[in-house]
Every structure is written in C-alpha cells, then in structure tokens.
Amino acid sequence: MQHTVTPHSDKLKQNLKQRLARIEGQVRGLQRMIENDTYCDDVLNQIASVQAALTGVARKLLTQHMHSCVKHRIQSGDESVLDELDTTIERLLKR
C-alpha cells in the first residue's frame, strides 16, 4: 500500500478536528457511564451515536479522498488506486 501525504484544506482539517474532538468527548462519556453503572440501553444508545459520528467523519474524508487523491492518481495514469479504493470501501461497509 502506498503511503503518501495528503494536503487537506484548513477548512476540512478544522471540520474533521472538531468532529473528532466531539467523538473523543462522547467516548469519555461512555467510560463514565460504564464506571457509574449506567443502564445498559443508555450506554448502547450512546455507542450508536459514537458509531454514527465516526461514520460521518469517514464519509466526509472518503468524499474528499475521491475528489482529490483518487482523481489525481487516475489522471496521472495510476488506476491501481481503484483497487485501493474498493478495499477501503469494503472495509468501511463491514460494520
């Protein structure tokens, strides 16, 4: 697998960082819920919220990836990126 640096716009970085900070807070809240013996259904609902938030981050990053990295590599003649993208999408859908 090719690992390269992908420059992201400041706007995208800020958006993703804010989303991840919220998710981090949600995960800390989950830890407190477990420590406090919170009702299981409430914990499971919070877990579902965290998963949905992570899916939102993945969706936003995947869209950016397709419109920048994938597009650029295809334009430069590197169609192997399509196999890489397929593997990534399969991994994201395995939930």
User: Main beta sheet, described?
Assistant: none
List the total number of helices.
3
Through-space gap between termini: 22 Å
Order of secondary-structure elements: HHH
Estimate the mean pLDDT confidence: 94
Assign an overall shape: elongated
| Helix percentage range | over 70%
Ranges with pLDDT <50 over ≥5 residues?
none
Backbone CA Rg: 17 Å
Oligomer: single chain
What structural class do you assign from the helix and strand content? mainly alpha
DSSP strand content: under 5%
Instruction: Tell how many strands the DSSP assignment holds.
Output: 0
Protein name: CsoR family transcriptional regulator
Family: Belongs to the FrmR/RcnR family.
Organism: Pseudidiomarina andamanensis
GO molecular function: DNA binding; metal ion binding
Notes on the protein architecture:
Helix 2 packs antiparallel against helix 3. This protein has a domain of 44 residues. The chain has 95 residues and is mainly α.
Write a compact overview of the structure shown.
The protein has 95 residues and is mainly α. It is built from 3 helices and no strands.
What keyword list fits this structure?
mainly alpha; elongated
Task: Walk me through the topology.
Layout lengths: L9 H26 L4 H36 L4 H14 L2
Helix pairs in contact: 1-2, 2-3
